[in-house]
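Technical note accompanying the year-one report. For the benefit of new consortium partners, we illustrate the data format agreed upon in the data management plan: each record pairs a sequence with a structure-token string. No post-processing was applied to the example shown here.
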Amino acid sequence: MPEPDHGLRPGADIVELFGCEVTIVDPDALLAAARTGPVELRLEGPFPAPVDQVGCTLAPTIVDGVQRCRMAATIRTAPPIRPEHPLRWLAVGAAGPAGMLLVRRLAATGAPVGPLAVRAGRMAVEASRRLGLDRPAPAAVAERPPVGDPAGVAVLRAAAELGLDPEISDEPAVGGGRLVTVRAAAVAAAVTPAHLRALVTVVLQVVREIVGDDPEPRVLRGGTYVLARPPAPTRVRPVPRSEAVSLDQVGGLDEVVARFREIAISFRHPQVMARWGARRPQGILLYGPPGTGKTMLARALANEIGAEFREIRTPEILDKWLGGSERNIKQIFREARRYREPTVLLFDEFDSIISYAGAGGDAASQAVNAVAGIFKQEMNTLIEENPNVIVVATTNFPQRVDASLIRSGRFDVKLSIPPPDEAGRAAIITRMIRDLVDRHESSGFRMFADDIDPAGLAAVSPGLTGADLREVLRRVQLAKAMGEATGAAPVGPISQDDLREAIAGLRRG
């Protein structure tokens, strides 16, 4: 019997709701990521007017000392929502199933729902209690459809049984139209794909209410919808596959990935940032031993934002001629101020470019000090003059970088990138293999055997970095390809033993 693939092949949760098919892409990975930082999702599909866009955010939060998963779905509508189909039950949706039924009855009479919402909510709580709708249905009648609006009552009941208590609000959206928000939360350790399904069901029911559907779900029938992370914004120039690393492929650095996702969100929502007068980070310093993935993280951030990636190396700045280095650094920042597309400006091996102790008296030391001084001046005003640019610097030796260069206001985020521990190595191996499976496996070709166990490989690879683990995979891939090309021996999928031997070979050098 084949052994489990340890999540190396991404799955999908496919459900039928209101006559349409909804696919939740890799729900286990989405929920795992949401335990460490915000995860933005998009529900894509043929939504009827006036619904324009449906998004969702999962994020960790602490309530009364307990970590919870906060879920917030937003439904944007194009102006105006048709007056004959007002948002009839949103104001009291959290008051229980009877709240929806009661507001429907009020709307049918032609009475303005808004002014009656508060009183209707109080009445709805009591009505729900008397009708028994605030309790799960007995097993004997669980299959019978509820009275009134069967779909709406069943939606709220299913959410309540999972411990979700959706709160629904409606407000004007920036640029016109309306923004309807569905909020819910559950204990993080107990959240499962069923909670995502329940959230999607509530969202689709709200869509039906906005559009003005009758109890039969004809509005959505036959549609196909996908809940997944949105693709990164289109880059001006295509990114080579070798450079198209994403944050999803970064393993063992959950806190760093979560912080980068927050920064990417701040880039994608400039209007919200402006409304609050919030300023996203201007500079990020990544420090740690070689091979831990600092440059890869900078590329992943650029791809997450949909930004151009500009890498500055030492030879582009340091010049043997007097005044040359200063001119070079000024020119780099002068160009950065002219970028009109989001850009990640990476200063790799930062310590070799501007490290100094501030006391050197020879010409070389004075030149380095001058470059560092210009760098500080340029960083002081960069974000105000061009908010499209974010600076990332990497170094293996943070002690060589003067503290005044990386103070807050210049580098607001400073992140240590340590060698991965055993759990981190398992995560890195899993992400790398999943990426290879996605890129190379097909119906007629299986690249990895069923016995691959990332945890077992992590246990026999102490001290290896992400770069080392990538080299292990490269060696095994090359050996398999050469074996097939030469026909020297039958070639099967990459096995656990193949990877163990490659790890041992890397240690031997």
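Partners are asked to follow this layout when depositing records. Confidence is low (pLDDT under 50) at residues 82-131, 133-148.
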